[in-house]
Amino acid sequence: MNKTTEEKFSDYIGDVVPAEEGDDDDFAIMPPSAASLPDCYRFELGFDEGEERLDKILARKIPEVSRARIQSWIEAGRVTVSGEPAKSVRQKAAACDVLEVRPMPLPEESAFEPQDGIEFETVYEDRDIIVINKPAGLVVHPAAGNWQGTLLNGLLFRYPELRKLPRAGIVHRLDKLTSGLMVVARNEAAQLNLVRQLQEHAVAREYWAIVAGIAPEAGFVDRAIGRDPRNPQKFVCRGGAGSRPAKTHCRLVDTAYIEGRAVSWVACRLETGRTHQIRVHLSTVGLPLIGDPVYRTSASVFPKEAQAVNGFPRQALHASRLRLTHPATGAASEWFAPAPEDMAGLMDELGFGPTDEPVHVFD
Asked: Which is catalytic among the residues 175, 254, 292, 342?
């Protein structure tokens, strides 16, 4: 296949949607943990501090903690007023009252526990980094509905020293049903370095996507992404408040036909790391991922005879290559993970392959 410059396919993008500037979704600042707070706060109110709601007073006196979190402590009985449990967040304190607060862990803090039996492949490890191959179906980080059984829990079991690091050294994410490579920092210096590389778009992350339709030979999608105001579980390409810049580079690897319908194997590289970025971008330009339960379009509907496509149980997306500068040695480092069994089976049915070697459409 002849390589084609992105400039020739600039009409593949459409108009660029402006975004509100903000941090990359690959990393986030954690709120202070209960472990980093004192066991007990004690405040003696002055003569001029009475007749105000208890939660407002405490939010002012403990600025490092959100008011909502303070309200949860009051409701859980962790706050006393002159020795008596606070009755409600609306209770007013009186002048000279003594307030005592015993911080309570966040739900996610209690979820940060080591757990055996969580399966993932370690592709590479040294004293600074771990590169893992995440299977589809494994949640990366504890959150509502998935407080246990995550990659983070498994990492803490295999590598107990990660407990000392924010998010157990995790610096970027993959969706639950996406498989493939991730890098995890093993110490604070490596974590800071990897976060900086992600901020500077210096980490090359290449994905294989199997999509409905005929993809252009080369191109990119440069459209801001934000939450769908009608469905908070979805993301859409839109501008304005709450949106973030997002850019995905694409190269066609191969095209096949099943029951008269075109299917394309596309390699994608991320310039940014937004939630659901590849899935949203490709669906927006008329190339929805096979099996994607969230970003289906009319193009996702295949004849019932196309069993290989219709029966695929997840989005056909795999993080196949990862390239970065080693945070300690400065060496250019790269890893490849072949397509997992389910996606390799789909690709074999479509005549795509080989599935156990990297493609070089970006080289």
From this structure: 175
- 77 shares its domain with 51: yes
Provide the angle, in degrees to the nearest 10, between the axes of the packed helices 54-61 and 67-75: 130
Q: What is the pLDDT of residue 24?
A: 39
Question: Which residues are 223's β-sheet partners?
Answer: 17
Compute the distance between CA of residue 214 and CA of residue 264 in angstroms, rounded to an integer.
6
If asked whether residues 144 and 52 sit together in one domain, one would say no
Among 81, 105, 129, residue at a domain's last position: 105
pLDDT in tens, 10-61: 444 434 444 443 333 555 434 455 555 788 999 999 988 878 899 999 999 9
Q: Is the pLDDT of residue 97 over 80?
A: yes
- Asked if 128 is an active-site residue, the reply is no
pLDDT (average), residues 220-241:
90
Q: What pLDDT is stored for residue 34 in this prediction?
A: 54
What is the secondary structure of 297-311 as a DSSP string?
A: -GGG---TT-HHHHT
Whether residues 174 and 288 share a domain: the answer is: yes
- Check: CB of residue 119 under 8 Å from CB of residue 158: no
Residue 156 has a CB neighbour count (10 Å cut-off) of: 20
Residue 1 lies in a domain: no
Residue 363 is assigned to a structural domain of this protein: no
The dihedral formed by the CA atoms of 260, 266, 271 and 276, expressed in degrees to the nearest 10? 50
Instruction: Report pLDDT for 91.
Output: 93
**Given this model, what pLDDT does residue 33 score?**
54
Same domain, 65 and 170: no
**Taking Cα atoms as reference points, which of 84, 83, 103 lies closest to residue 31?**
103
Do 131 and 264 reside in the same domain of the chain? yes
